[in-house]
Amino acid sequence: MRETINIVGDLSDDGKTIILEQPVKGIPAGRVHLVLIQDDEEISDQEWVSSLSKSNLYDDLKHPDEDIYSINDGKPYYGTR
C-alpha cells in the first residue's frame, strides 16, 4: 500500500538536497517520489486539487490492477459515527 505524507523542508541552492523540518517516520528507507511545491504563497485547497488532477503523479492508479473495489464494497458513510 502506498502512503502519502506531507512534509515541509528547504531545497539547497544546488537543488540536490532537501532539509526536512521533521524526520520522516513510518516509511522505510528507500526510493521515494517527491512532488515539490514552492512555498512563496499559500495556495487554496481548490488550486491544490486542480494542480494534482492535471498532474501525471497518480496515473498509475488508472491501471486496471489498481481497480480493486466496487460499489458493493463497504458501507455508506452518512457523516456520523
Alpha-carbon Rg, integer: 17 Å
- Count the strands? 2
What is the chains' assembly state? single chain
- H/E element sequence: EEH
What global shape is seen? extended
Q: What does this protein look like?
A:
With about 80 residues, the chain is low in regular secondary structure. It has one domain (about 10-65). It contains 1 helix and 2 strands. The chain has one helix spanning about 45-55, and strands at about 10, 20. Strands 1-2 form a two-stranded antiparallel sheet. A hairpin with a 6-residue loop joins strand 1 and strand 2 (about 20). The chain starts with 8 loop residues before the first strand and ends in a 27-residue tail after the last helix. About 0% of the residues are buried.
Which key terms come to mind for this protein?
12% helix; 1 helix; single chain; little secondary structure; 81 residues
Topology:
Blueprint: E1 9-11, E2 18-20, H1 45-54
Antiparallel strand pairs: 1-2
What's the short story on this structure?
The chain is low in regular secondary structure and 81 residues long. Helix content is 12%, strand content 7%. The longest helix is centred in the middle third of the chain and has 10 residues, at 45-54.
